[in-house]
Amino acid sequence: MNNRLNRNSEIPLYQQIEQIIKEKIVKGEWPAGTKIPSQRKLADIFRVNRSTVTAAIDELTASGLLEGKRGGGTKVTNHTWKSLSAVRPLDWTSYVRSGIHRPNSTTIQEINRQEFNEGMIRLGTGELSPELLPYRQMKEVLAGAEAEKLSLGYEEPKGNRYVREAVAEHLKRKGVNTSPDSILIVSGALQALQLIAIGLLKRKSAVLTERPSYLYSLHVFQSMEMRLFGIPVDESGLDPAFIPACKKQYGADLLYTIPSFHNPTGRQMSEDRRKELIRISKAYSLPIIEDDAYGDLWLDGPPPPPLKAFDQDGSILYVGTLSKTVSPGLRIGWVAGPEPVIERLADIKMQTDYGSSSLSQWAAAKWLAGGLYEQHLATIRKKLKIRRDAALRSLKAHCQAIATWEKPSGGFYIWVTFHKPLPLNTLFERALKKNVLINPGTLYDKEAKQSIRLSYSYASISDLEKGIRTVAELARELM
Amino acid sequence: MNNRLNRNSEIPLYQQIEQIIKEKIVKGEWPAGTKIPSQRKLADIFRVNRSTVTAAIDELTASGLLEGKRGGGTKVTNHTWKSLSAVRPLDWTSYVRSGIHRPNSTTIQEINRQEFNEGMIRLGTGELSPELLPYRQMKEVLAGAEAEKLSLGYEEPKGNRYVREAVAEHLKRKGVNTSPDSILIVSGALQALQLIAIGLLKRKSAVLTERPSYLYSLHVFQSMEMRLFGIPVDESGLDPAFIPACKKQYGADLLYTIPSFHNPTGRQMSEDRRKELIRISKAYSLPIIEDDAYGDLWLDGPPPPPLKAFDQDGSILYVGTLSKTVSPGLRIGWVAGPEPVIERLADIKMQTDYGSSSLSQWAAAKWLAGGLYEQHLATIRKKLKIRRDAALRSLKAHCQAIATWEKPSGGFYIWVTFHKPLPLNTLFERALKKNVLINPGTLYDKEAKQSIRLSYSYASISDLEKGIRTVAELARELM
């Protein structure tokens, strides 16, 4: 909206703003009932004094287009349209509230929005920092398109053949033998979970997972009325000894696990534990979704082979992605599993988005097949290790007296638990005011009221230090 | 599987095939209960005589890995695993059958599969032919990445800012004034419908649409337990006079329409009818989804402005896409509507796939902003017109005595209705045997048992002639 203001115009700025807002209302972009941005936010957007915004809002309120809300805020009135026509305006609000899918938690919505504010120190963001993203190599890949067989049409339901072959080769290097026919290309690991939720499970199904788990921060299963049950985690990972009881008590239908560099705890499941998990889940006919998003991001040494490498009878759906290693924006991931399951998921995928971007699939094939992926991994492992060690140093300097944590041997995350209870929401808000964005532990386990997930992958090393120091100071005040 | 056969080996081919199939079973790619491909199909895959396949299957059956199914076919046995372990194998079949989302209709699944068979004349395919896809221009766009601000990270929830600005400009040229804040970038128009289904509607909601309609061929609303009601169409498009009764009888919650170059009828809604539709749906508080996938593909003259251009109070969600004009593989579309609705859909999108491919979004921005899109449209309009006229000539030559149709003034489709009833499934199967793939009318209206949707966008002109002649001959036999 800002770029429509003309600062050299004879028309006062407040009147220009009034006009811009009026247009948004008249065009239906802000329909009746819309809560408009706060005056502070509008002042930011238009880069004017708050008094200028206040003058515009006052005019619009006087003309009956806006009204103050109880409890603060300003919304677009309903009676606007009554005066213009006899027809009641469409009440989108009821539509927005009544969809089947749950909205993201307000904390996550706030995080999603704040992440795009410049100057924010993002201590919770689970992505590679822009400085770690391979822009140069991607440009080279794209420039090389001349000689390549680019695909602009729809792809096969399971995805482009070349990228599936490249994924099969990639998995072979990790000890997983699977054919391209047993692989589905998806738009990131999250979509794999979405397809599994709507394609393989009944409503009310019970899904087991680590506690805490990334899965709790999503609504992918919960929106389909499925129930999540958390299994305790020890230093070797999820403890499969709890499975029999869960199976008996909840009739568990599926187990979701991140065995390597778990999100959010950073823990690694040992090889013995992996074999034990497979043995027990087989005995109880419990299929497993293995999320291996972080497996290639080891820092001190490779993790044990994926669960899928020990899978003898196709009871594991293996999920991988390029989002954490090459580019989240590519939106390319994969699922490997029994063919009838993969075909079912492919059919559902065709029904929801007709397949993933062929441009992204083509680029992914180039990355995986040409050795570029492995080269790039070697570079970012080094850089992530430096970041991890810096974060650990900052933690030691500022948090030793107030919190505990473990050194992760790969991935992006350190799970920091404060010694004493503290109001996490207040910590989140106060940190935000100081331009530090954190991910409260309650996103991953509603009982984890003393923990935060710290990510060393995104913020710069100096920001990591600054951000950790700020959070430590705020936490001390609140404890 | 074929490329694993060694035709120079001392090991007989049937034993090699036996080994390959055994591996697929042992690795769990074909778990217990899987129906394996027919012997005819396996012979095709391995490029061997059918007797060679039979020998391999016989061996595997004798060893207890496979068994004949009642009613034909061969499946992987259950007792395989019983002999190897005391543990019952995981029964994926029940998972595959029990998901919430319905499978595609078997006809559509068959079409999806057959489309990738070489030599098939695709008379039903609603896509641009590879010869109409802009490979050269796309390569130039990609090669130009060096100078551009490529984005490899996650994008904002509503999508990349540059592409939303480019879409807003594009819409302005069509008479639709909307700001980038009111636009959501999606992975094609189908995803827009998916997000609307799970984000804005309750279970059991009633959705009105044209009859026949493309919407009937999807399960996007039906899988969420919503009900579809068809409204009759005349030469000016959907007849809004039926809306009051539908609203009263079914409590309609939403209306979906394709006003320009309708799929599958090719019809165009007149300007008066558009205004009338808006007037009536406003009076009955019925929001509209306008699908404008084909609006830019006019052949004889531009269609009336989109419904959205007449929308005064944000009761229309406008859906557009690059799939039908530039590249389906890009998977880029957009929804324009009231901001609170767009924000709700953006939140759901973040929860299902974390946004569309940033590579595709970047390429789409380059296409829309640089004039490339308009240039390309001018070219394909000319070529589509030649194809449409050729298809009409072939219809006249072969079908005049047995069917009726209208000349579409844009888009991809001709709706051909035979004079007499005929078994459409048999027509579909016999055409398939002659390597001609058609889309039966029943996909779009279960009562349209005498119609097929003919597309002139995909097959070459000589294939269009050959395919139409073949279908005419088969139809004559069956009528």
How many structural domains in the coordinates of chain A?
3
Biggest sheet features of chain A: 7 strands, mixed
Q: What is the average of the pLDDT values of chain A?
A: 90
Distance between the first and last residues' Cα of chain A = 42 Å
Q: Classify the beta-strand content of chain A into a percent band.
A: 5-15%
Architecture of the largest domain in chain A, according to CATH? 3-Layer(aba) Sandwich
Pfam family, one (chains A, B): GntR
Protein name (chains A, B): GntR family transcriptional regulator
Keywords (chains A, B): Aminotransferase, DNA-binding, Pyridoxal phosphate, Transcription, Transcription regulation, Transferase
Organism (chains A, B): Bacillus glycinifermentans
Overview of this protein structure:
Two copies of one chain form a homodimer. Chain A has 479 residues and is an alpha/beta fold. The first copy, chain A, has three domains: 2-98, Arc Repressor Mutant, subunit A, CATH 1.10.10; 106-127 and 375-478, Aspartate Aminotransferase, domain 1, CATH 3.90.1150; 135-370, 3-Layer(aba) Sandwich (Aspartate Aminotransferase, domain 2). Chain A has 16 helices and 18 strands. Chain A has helices at residues 13-26, 39-46, 50-62, 79-84, 92-98, 106-114, 135-143, 161-172, 189-200, 243-250, 271-283, 339-353, 358-369, 372-399, 424-433, 461-478; strands at residues 35-36, 66-68, 74-76, 121-122, 183-186, 206-210, 227-231, 233-234, 237-238, 254-257, 288-291, 316-321, 333-336, 403-404, 413-418, 436-437, 439-440, 451-455. In chain A, the strands form five sheets. Chain A has a seven-stranded mixed β-sheet, with helices on both faces. The first copy, chain A, has a four-stranded antiparallel β-sheet with strand order 14-15-18-17. In chain A, strand 8 (233-234) and strand 9 form a beta hairpin. In chain A, helix 1 (13-26) packs across helix 3 (50-62), helix 14 packs parallel to helix 16 and helix 15 (424-433) packs across helix 16. The longest helix of chain A is centred in the last third of the chain and has 28 residues, at 372-399. Chain A is globular, with a radius of gyration of 25 Å. At the A-B interface, helix 5, helix 6, helix 7, helix 9 and helix 12 of A face helix 5, helix 6, helix 7, helix 9 and helix 12 of B.
